[in-house]
Every structure is written in structure tokens, then in C-alpha cells.
Design a protein that fits this description.
Strand content: 35-45%
Organism: Kaistella montana
Order of helices and strands: HHHHHHHHHHEEEEEEEEEEEEEE
Shape: elongated
Pfam family, one: YaiO
Number of helices: 10
CATH topology of the largest domain: Porin
CATH class of the largest domain: Mainly Beta
InterPro entries: Beta-barrel_YaiO, TPR-like_helical_dom_sf, Ycf3/AcsC/BcsC/TPR_MFPF
CATH superfamily of the largest domain: monomeric porin ompg
Protein name: YaiO family outer membrane beta-barrel protein
Radius of gyration: 30 Å
Keywords: Repeat, Signal, TPR repeat
Number of domains: 3
Length: 418
């Protein structure tokens, strides 16, 4: 019996050795393309980067000048967090004067992800000499320049990208974000006219002036508003800031004060966390607070999406009280005509927003009444530094329970960037 057991173990060991030998022999006889495909499967389907790296290296031993495999190996080291090994692979390819578009993109991406933005731009500039129409290379160059706070150069890169393809979604998203930072200063003035057919006898007139300064941590905006409502005048002062937390997140922080309660709320505050998400999505969540004779708290959330020349956004305000929760929803669609400052927009929704000039209607009772709104806006620029806007909005509002009236708004705006 002991002899039989020993014999079985020997046979099993021989069988395992034979299988291993056959497997090794099979791998040795695989072509570089077959090993490359196995490496891709291990990386993309199984996320097994060590195995994928081993297969890619084996493929390169068979075909040392197979550039696609070498670039893929550099990407694998990048994804696996081995920055030094990735850089060694890409440096060797750079010295060989490889001109493949994917090589420049992979090498520059490594440097960009590791905050070596100047090096990334240097690589991209060399790649663009061979591939001047590459949308991916121009996109990454704009991102790297923006991360280095070289906003004017980043804006030029985006303009080139959109000239190549006006419907490039990432380019449209970048153009909008970089536009807000491309000039250190901006002054603006807006005028809003409101007419009511029933709710109030007098028209409303609101004039706002603003000064925006781009700082190393984000934009800061000072605002002053003058209003004539209910045949009475009042003023309000506001400050807003958009500090950046990372490449993905930034904050909105705002506060305002007025000594003319009823024309404006006495105090207002607001904070939101904003995120630039993958696939050209963006999101926001935060609160707004208004104080007239008592506090009114509103919680807001929004989601936005860039798609070719379009920007879609859906925002809600939720206002809880002791008895129920009031909801406000607004949908916005923008269609960009040229750059980030030239677009037409359409808007529709329900409820009253604290962001609107009519926010003095948001006392402790009227936010519960039903409001429907629809409107359009046109923005255009002249020589990039002169920005004009005109918008019209129609409201149908229940200003007393079961009693509705109409409101018509026209808003004109001008901003000078410098």
C-alpha cells in the first residue's frame, strides 16, 4: 500500500512538471502580438498589472522595436504607481525619436498626473509638431497649462482645439472653466427690469455693479446692488469667493448684508461644494440662508453635463419647515456658438430661487406658493474682453393662495475683463 502511494505521488509530480513545461513551451512560442493581447486582457479585464507587465516585457523581448508594446508597458508602470520605471521606458522612446501620437500622450500624461506640468507641456509641444490636429494632445496641453495657472496660454490651446473640432466636449468644458480665470480682473454692471400685471402696482428696477479678482487660490467677487421696489429704494453689499481645493473640487462661499430689509434680506449666506467629475459631468451640493425677520434655510444640489456644444444643468432647492418641504427645480440648456462667452440659453422651472433678483419675495411664507418660469438668454463677446448679455424671463406666480399673477423680467449686462 505504501509502495502504491509513493508511485501515485511520483506520477502526479511528473504530470505537474509536464504541464508546466508545456505551458512554458507554449508561452515561449507565442508571438509578440499574442503576448500583447494577453497583457491587455490582464490589465483591462482583470486589473492585474504585475502579470500584464511581465507579459508586455516578454513580448518586447521578442520584438524590441514594437513601439505600441513599449508605450503600453510605460502606461502599465504608470497605472501601477511605478513612476521611475514608467519614466525610464518613455525616456528611452524619446531618445529613439519615436513620433507616435499615443507615445506623446502617454508620456505627457505621466508627467501631468505627477504635477510636472512644464515637462508635460514640453513633451506635448514636440508631439504637436508631428500631430498638429490631435485633439487629445491639445486637450492635455490645456489642462497642464491650466494646472500651472498659465490661463492665457491654456485659453489659446483650447481655442485651437475648438477650431479643430467645435463639438469637442472636453474642450467645451475646459473653455468655460479657463475663461473664468484667464483675466485677473473684471468689472461688470447689470440692469434688471420687472413688470407685474397684478401682484404689485410699481415696476422694479435693480442695478448691480461687481468687481472680480482672480487670486492664486481662486476668484473673489465684490458686489453692490441698488434696487427700487414697491416705490422704495434700498442697497445691498455682497462678497463671493470660489477657492480651489484640488483639481476636482472647489468651493462657493458667499455672504451679503443690507440695511434695507424688505427690499433685500438683512443677511444672506451660502456655501457649496463643487466637483468637476469624469465624463464632463459636474455637481454641486450646499445651502443658502436668508434672514428677513427670521432665518430661511434652503438646501441646493445640481448636476451638469457638457456634451459637444451643449451644457445641461438641473438644479433643485429644498426648503424644509415644521409642516412640509418646499421644492424648486430649474433646468437650463446652453448652446455655445464660439468660445466660452458666446452662447444662447433656455431655462424653465418651478419655484423661486434665492439666486434671483426677486429673492426678497422669499419671506417665511411665499416660497411655499407655486411659481412657474420660462426664459432665454443670449451672451456674446467683442474682442474677448467685452462681454454682453441680454435675457428675458416670464413668471406665473401664485402670490396668494389660489391667486396667480404674471411677471416679466428683462436683464441687460456688460462685463469688461482686463
Amino acid at each position: 500500500m505504501t509502495f502504491t502511494l509513493i508511485a501515485m505521488k511520483q506520477r502526479l509530480g511528473f504530470l505537474l512538471l509536464l504541464l508546466f513545461s508545456l505551458s512554458f513551451y507554449g508561452q515561449q512560442n507565442q508571438s509578440a502580438d499574442e503576448l500583447f493581447q494577453e497583457a491587455r486582457t490582464a490589465a483591462f479585464d482583470k486589473k492585474d498589472y504585475p502579470t500584464s507587465i511581465a507579459l508586455a516585457k516578454q513580448a518586447l523581448e521578442k520584438s524590441p522595436n514594437y513601439t505600441d508594446i513599449a508605450v503600453f508597458l510605460g502606461r502599465l508602470y504608470t497605472w501601477n504607481g511605478d513612476e521611475a520605471a514608467a519614466r525610464n521606458v518613455f525616456t528611452e522612446l524619446f531618445q529613439k525619436d519615436v513620433q507616435d501620437e499615443d507615445f506623446f500622450l502617454a508620456y505627457a500624461s505621466l508627467e501631468y498626473w505627477n504635477d510636472q506640468n512644464d515637462k508635460a507641456v514640453e513633451i506635448l509641444d514636440k508631439g504637436l509638431l508631428s500631430h498638429p490636429q490631435s485633439e487629445e494632445l491639445w486637450t492635455l496641453k490645456a489642462r497642464a497649462l491650466s494646472s500651472s495657472k498659465k490661463y492665457s496660454e491654456a485659453e489659446k490651446s483650447v481655442e485651437t482645439l475648438l477650431a479643430i473640432n467645435p463639438q469637442n466636449t472636453e474642450g467645451r468644458e475646459l473653455a468655460t472653466k479657463i475663461n473664468d480665470l484667464s483675466a485677473k480682473n473684471a468689472v461688470g454692471i447689470t440692469y434688471n427690469f420687472s413688470h407685474f400685471d397684478q401682484q404689485f402696482d410699481d415696476d422694479w428696477h435693480i442695478v448691480g455693479i461687481s468687481y472680480k479678482r482672480v487670486t492664486p487660490i481662486g476668484s473673489v467677487i465684490l458686489k453692490g446692488n441698488y434696487a427700487n421696489k414697491f416705490a422704495t429704494s434700498g442697497t445691498q453689499f455682497e462678497i463671493e469667493a470660489y477657492p480651489r481645493l484640488s483639481k476636482t473640487f472647489y468651493l462657493y462661499v458667499g455672504a451679503g448684508y443690507s440695511g434695507d430689509v424688505g427690499i433685500f434680506p438683512k443677511y444672506r449666506t451660502g456655501v457649496s461644494l463643487n466637483a468637476n467629475l469624469p465624463k464632463s459631468f459636474e455637481a454641486e451640493i450646499g445651502y443658502r440662508q436668508l434672514y428677513f425677520s427670521e432665518n430661511l434655510w434652503m438646501y441646493t444640489a445640481s448636476v451638469g453635463k457638457y456634451y459637444k456644444n451643449f451644457w445641461f444643468n438641473l438644479r433643485t432647492y429644498i426648503t424644509p419647515d415644521r409642516e412640509n418641504i418646499s421644492h424648486s427645480y430649474t433646468g437650463t440648456v446652453r448652446y455655445y456658438l464660439k468660445g466660452a462667452q458666446d452662447y444662447i440659453a433656455f431655462q424653465a422651472g418651478t419655484g423661486i430661487s434665492p439666486e434671483e433678483n426677486r429673492n426678497n419675495l422669499l419671506d417665511t411664507t411665499t416660497y411655499k406658493l407655486k411659481t412657474y418660469k420660462v426664459g432665454a438668454e443670449y451672451n456674446f463677446s467683442v474682442k474677448k474682453t467685452n462681454l454682453f448679455s441680454v435675457s428675458a424671463m416670464y413668471f406665473n406666480q401664485e402670490f396668494r393662495p389660489n391667486v396667480k399673477g404674471n411677471q416679466f423680467d428683462i436683464t441687460l449686462g456688460y462685463t469688461r475683463k482686463f
